[in-house]
Structure formats: structure tokens, C-alpha cells
Design goal:
Length: about 140
């Protein structure tokens, strides 16, 4: 059974989507969205158990109450996954924290999500690299 729902998108993003859709010969937006969803989740599922190394980068406001402590606390909760942490004082207000991590893709993603979701974190990114074999 098909269900309908509506999506709000920025004009520019929609323009890019429509362009890509045409380039890939999709006849309508629904079919393109369905494929994107399938591909994304199937890929994630397939990759979830793979051993990866990753780099999490966070930009946050160090004036935000207790944020620095929380960022450290989350990292201690995942200490088996943390290889190293580098803290850079970007400017008067902002800190950049670059955290090298390892473990299963699912766990590394979860750690990144925890950190990025903290209030006051302005930007959070995770880049994962797979070795193709198990890490120690
Ligand atoms: Ni700092």
C-alpha cells in the first residue's frame, strides 16, 4: 500500500533534486525519493557491522554552560572507541574538536550522533573510512 506525505525543501535543493532526477531518468519525484530511501538504508544496514575508522569534527561554543564537560563525558562513555582527541581554540567563542574513532560503523555513528546532538554544538561531521578488514 502506498502512503502519501509531503516534504518541505529549500528551492535550490529542490532544483538540484529535479535536475539529478532527470539526469537519472526518473519519471517522477516519488520514484526518485523511494529509491534514495532504499539505497540509503540498505547501505547503512550493510555497513553497520563493518569495522571502520572515523573522524568526528565538532564546532561548539565554549561559553555554552557545561558543554565542554558534556563533550568530554560522552567521550569517556565511548573510551574504547576513541583513538585521539585534538582540541583547537578556533576563535574567541568557538572550539573545534577533532576526534579520531574506531569500531563498528554503527557504534561510531552513534557516538557521533550523541556528540552532535548536544546543545550548543554548531556543527558536527563524521567521516568514516573502512579498512576492509577487522581492526584490533
Ligand atoms: Ni577551546
Amino acid at each position: 500500500m502506498l502512503k502519501r506525505f509531503s516534504i518541505s525543501l529549500e528551492e535550490e535543493l529542490l532544483a538540484i533534486f529535479d535536475e539529478q532526477m532527470k539526469a537519472r531518468s526518473y519519471s517522477n519525484r516519488s520514484e526518485a525519493i523511494r529509491d534514495l530511501i532504499r539505497k540509503t538504508f540498505v547501505k547503512e544496514e550493510w555497513e553497520a557491522d563493518k569495522q571502520v575508522m572515523g573522524v568526528i569534527s565538532l564546532v561548539y561554543d565554549h561559553h555554552q554552560h557545561k558543554l565542554q564537560e558534556k563533550v568530554t563525558e560522552v567521550q569517556h562513555d565511548y573510551h574504547h572507541h576513541i583513538v585521539s582527541t585534538t582540541h583547537v581554540h578556533m576563535d574567541h567563542d568557538n572550539c573545534l574538536e577533532v576526534i579520531v574513532v574506531k569500531g563498528k560503523a554503527r557504534e561510531v555513528q552513534e557516538l557521533s550522533d550523541h556528540l552532535t546532538a548536544l546543545r550548543g554544538v554548531r556543527d558536527g561531521n563524521l567521516a568514516m573510512s573502512s579498512t576492509g578488514k577487522a581492526l584490533h
